[in-house]
Amino acid sequence: MKKILSKLTHLDPDRRPTMVDVSGKPATVREARAECRVRFPAEVATQLRASGLKSAKGGIVDTAIIAGTMAVKRTHELIPFCHPLPIDGCSLVIDWDGRSSLRIECAVKTTHRTGVEMEALTGATVAALTVYDMCKALSHKIVIGPARLTGKRGGKRDVGSV
């Protein structure tokens, strides 16, 4: 347990929550990519395909892209120890992944002292929540997830592909 606790960066020596001090790190290009899935019951997916992913509330994909982008820019307001970051780039791609599942991918880029993994994950999941909100009148059996980081570049180590 001590080994695990010693690796957690958001705990001070007294094991109290703390924001990581990044002031000594150099500003470098940081990128991250995350994805989240939204799975629909078969009959709902059929309706959504027939409508071109439009609902009574409007364009599902366009609304989810806007919501995901807004979430990326406000991640530090939602996750307690995230630093406010200048976002240099953000893109969301939403498309069908199989017969009844949407795949949402969020890519984020900054030049700063800390990474944008949380921003990418927040963008992908908020976009998924928006899809759910836009479609919940059709069914409450819509499933969100899994959400996962697919890659990051910059900082101590690179993970996956960006």
Would you write up a description of this structure?
The chain has 162 residues and is of the alpha+beta class. It contains five helices and seven strands, in the order H-E-H-E-E-H-H-E-E-H-E-E. The strands form two sheets. Strands 4-5-1-6-7 form a five-stranded antiparallel β-sheet, with helices on one face. Strands 2-3 form a two-stranded antiparallel ribbon. Helix 3 packs antiparallel against helix 5. The model has no long low-confidence stretch (mean pLDDT 93).
Query: How far is the first residue's CA from the last residue's CA?
Result: 32 Å
Per DSSP E runs of 2 or more residues, the count of β-strands stands at 7
In terms of DSSP E residues, the strand content is 25-35%
The poorly predicted ranges are none
**What's the helix count?**
5
Describe what is shown at a glance:
The protein is an alpha+beta fold and 162 residues long. Helices cover 32% and strands 30% of the residues. Helix 3 packs antiparallel against helix 5 (117-135).
List the helices and strands and how they pair.
Layout lengths: L1 H6 L20 E12 L2 H9 L3 E2 L2 E2 H14 L1 H4 L10 E8 L4 E12 L4 H19 L7 E11 L5 E2 L2
Antiparallel strand pairs: 1-5, 1-6, 2-3, 4-5, 6-7
Observed structural traits:
single chain; alpha+beta; five-stranded antiparallel beta sheet; 5 helices
